[in-house]
Specification:
This protein has 194 residues and is of the alpha+beta class. It is built from five helices and nine strands.
Length: 194
């Protein structure tokens, strides 16, 4: 009579202290790495876009720098939960499956580890500075019809006199504006002195 409850106690202890299929498969499975992108920032400047605004007395040359976008690489390692199907089958048969699923889920969650990596380029091009005047920038003005070329610089505020731009060209001439850059010339726009 003393040992009448012993099988019940043994089954209860085995439910509490043994791991089922899901837990064992989760523990023995290799860790999985997932790479995601975190905080984004602008990286190395790759180009500058210029815009010319023509006024009556003066024109203004504006510039907008563009950079490659970078993002912090986040590496997450964790164990994925395996054996959920056998654990679900155990629930109606033995009643142990629920404890097994909980145990496997807790182990998978506890194995998560996040490591911050280096900044990597995303391939996107983003604005990386203010849209501002382009001071002391060399302008090349080319007459579309004759090919005649004049060179001049903007002032400290990025302005240039329209009289100075149109000087030396005939009335109604189509003028192509270029900016001299390190790698050559960049076309801005075409203006006319109507």
């Amino acid at each position: 009579m003393k040992y009448r409850y012993l099988p019940f106690v043994l089954v209860l202890l085995s439910c509490m202290f043994t791991n089922g299929c899901a837990t064992i498969l989760t523990i023995s499975a290799p860790s999985v790495e997932e790479v995601t992108l975190g905080k984004k920032a602008s990286g190395q400047q790759i180009s500058i876009n210029y815009h010319y605004f023509d006024g009556k007395e003066k024109g203004t040359l504006m510039r907008q720098p563009y950079c490659l976008e970078t993002a912090e690489q986040m590496i997450m390692t964790r164990k994925r939960m395996h054996g959920a199907v056998p654990a679900m089958i155990e629930i109606p048969i033995f009643g142990l499956g629920l404890l097994d699923l909980i145990s496997a889920g807790v182990y998978a969650k506890a194995s998560e580890e996040e490591v911050r990596g280096n900044f990597v380029e995303t391939g996107e091009i983003v604005e990386c500075g203010k849209f501002a005047p382009a001071p002391e920038t060399e302008l090349i003005i080319q007459c579309a019809e004759t090919g005649q070329i004049n060179k001049m610089n903007t002032d400290a505020a990025g302005n240039i006199s329209t009289k100075q731009i149109y000087a030396g060209f005939f009335q109604n001439a189509q003028l192509n504006l270029f900016v001299k850059e390190a790698g050559g010339f960049a076309y801005i726009t075409t203006i006319s002195n109507y």
